[in-house]
Structure formats: structure tokens, C-alpha cells
Automatic annotation (TrEMBL):
This is Outer-membrane lipoprotein carrier protein. GO terms for cellular component: periplasmic space. Keywords: Chaperone, Lipoprotein, Periplasm, Protein transport, Signal, Transport. Residues 38-60 are annotated as: Disordered. It comes from Acidovorax kalamii. GO terms for biological process: lipoprotein localization to outer membrane; lipoprotein transport. Belongs to the LolA family.
Amino acid sequence: MKKIATAILIAAAASAASADGLKSLESFMKGTQTGKADFTQTVTSPPKEGQTARTKQSSGSFEFQRPGRFKFVYKKPFEQTIVADGQTLWLYDVDLNQVTQRSQSQALGSTPAALLASAPDLSALKAEFTLEAAPDADGLQWVLASPKAKDGQLKSVRVGFAGEQLAALDILDSFGQRSLIRFTGMQANAALPASSFQFKPPAGADVVKQ
């Protein structure tokens, strides 16, 4: 009987803890319209037969303004900028001096880190993703977001919160590649100039439209 009672208590505690992730997501969507932070990104590719998994790390800064505007500036190891201005998604590779221009509405699935920045509210997010509570881990509350469209490159995203603060994104694509983005120094509702989300291709850059 004690074992059963203990199991019930553990299950109840796990359920309550998991529900906190959904609560944190709801609070974030309601209360945070802009934000900026530094980030580190670790990309792990699935191992080839007889080999260990390879990882690549990068870092930079992130800004967003809901709905639909965000900017990632990768500083290490290679410089790259991704800007969404509400209509167009721009990707600028400094080393190649190349700009890729895509319609933002068609590119959301390939930029999962921006899903929270793009959705105006929780109901819009639910229209694109199935949201489920996930177990607490690494000191964070997690929500599992699975895209309702099954033909994209994105398989799932786990969204991690520290209270109501966005802290991490754990992204899995259809090729088995995992990207873990951790945010530090998040400033919620920071005053951001409109110029933050404007992009003009540098002179001499090769512009590719997709």
C-alpha cells in the first residue's frame, strides 16, 4: 500500500511540475512582447555507423518583437545574421558575402527558434503546433511543441522556461539533427528600435531569392 501511495504522490508531483511549463508558456506569450539575450547553440548531427556524434558550437545575440520580427546575430565561429522584418526572412553569410531572401510566411518551419517570436498569441501558436507538457529537466520547465504540418523539416521543439523567462530551445529536425539553444541575460520587454529588424543587403553582396 505504501508503494502505491508513493507512486501516486510521485505521479501527482510530476504532473504538477509538467503543468508549470504550459503555465510558463502562457505567461510568456501574454506578458512578453519584446526581448533580447545572448545565446549559445550546440548542433549535434546523428552519428554515422561506427562513429561518434559530432557537435558544433556557435554563439551570438538574439532580439525579437512579436508578432513576426526577430534577429539572430551569430558572432562565433562564423559571422552570420538572420533577420525577419515581418514580411521577409533575410540570411546574410559574411564570409560568402551572400544574402538569401525568402518569404517569411513560408520559412517559419525552417526557423523554429523564432516560433515564439512570430506567433502573436498562444492561440496562434496552437494553430501551428500541438503543445504538451514535458517533464522538468536541467532546472527548467519544458513544453513540447510538435508541428501539425507533417511535411516540413521540423520534427519537434522543446521550449524551456526559468519561471516566465525563455531559457532554452531544444530542436529536432526530420534528419535527426538536434540543435540546443540556451539563452542568457534575457531582458524581457526591452525597448528595441525599429531599425533592429530592418535589413539592407550590403553593397556588392550576392542576393539569392528563394
